[in-house]
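hi! just following up on the protien thing from before. the input was this:
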Amino acid sequence: MVSYIEWPRELISPRHYTPGFDPQTNPQDRMSLTGRLGNGSAPGLGIWRPRFSEVPVHQRINQSAFDALAAQMNGRDVHVLLPFYHFGKYPKGSDPVDVGFANGMDFDGGNRFVSTGTTALVAENAFAGSTTVRISKVACATIIPGHAFSIGRHLYQIRFVDMQNDSTAQVRIRPELRDDILIRDEVEFARPWVMATLVEGMGMDFDQQFGRYGTPSLQFIENTAPFDPDHEV
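and the predicted 3d structure came back as:
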């Protein structure tokens, strides 16, 4: 039993990627932040619809991993934590490096941690539905509109920077906060994620040439509900 699946970023990557932010400018198309604000008529400020186009799946490389994903997802039952591909456009503090423990030791076998080189934290509590986030820049370069980040398992994009110095920034975001955030929650710029669900339950089925390779395209939609660790399917 699982509550969600983390998409294998390095093993199965799309040739073409669309973040797919839908601002839902037509009132009839808007979705509400239901189940959290207790107001079904509260309009949403947009929703993510990520699209992975032409995902290379090959028998000798990653087909077994893709088949395992398809089996575990069981149609649309299981939520998927998808990577947001920013292609290097984020406020990089320094280059990622491999690091060991504080005492200088590594894991058995020589493996080490990966430090992204970029660290930012929530500097002020905010409630779900808010569009303003105050950020503490621990190891972080200049934040600009268009940068994306995740807090927990929800993805946001910066629309405006109201204030910024070397240690702090106050930004306005889209969409609105999906969940309450607390001081010292991590603001993930280097490897952001978004919790999503397949739009089409049979989306993981694809034509395989000679049963060995194919390039499926997958359409997802954001799961806007606060993360529930007890949700299992």
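The longest strand covers residues 154-164.
The chain has one domain: 4-89+112-222.
cheers
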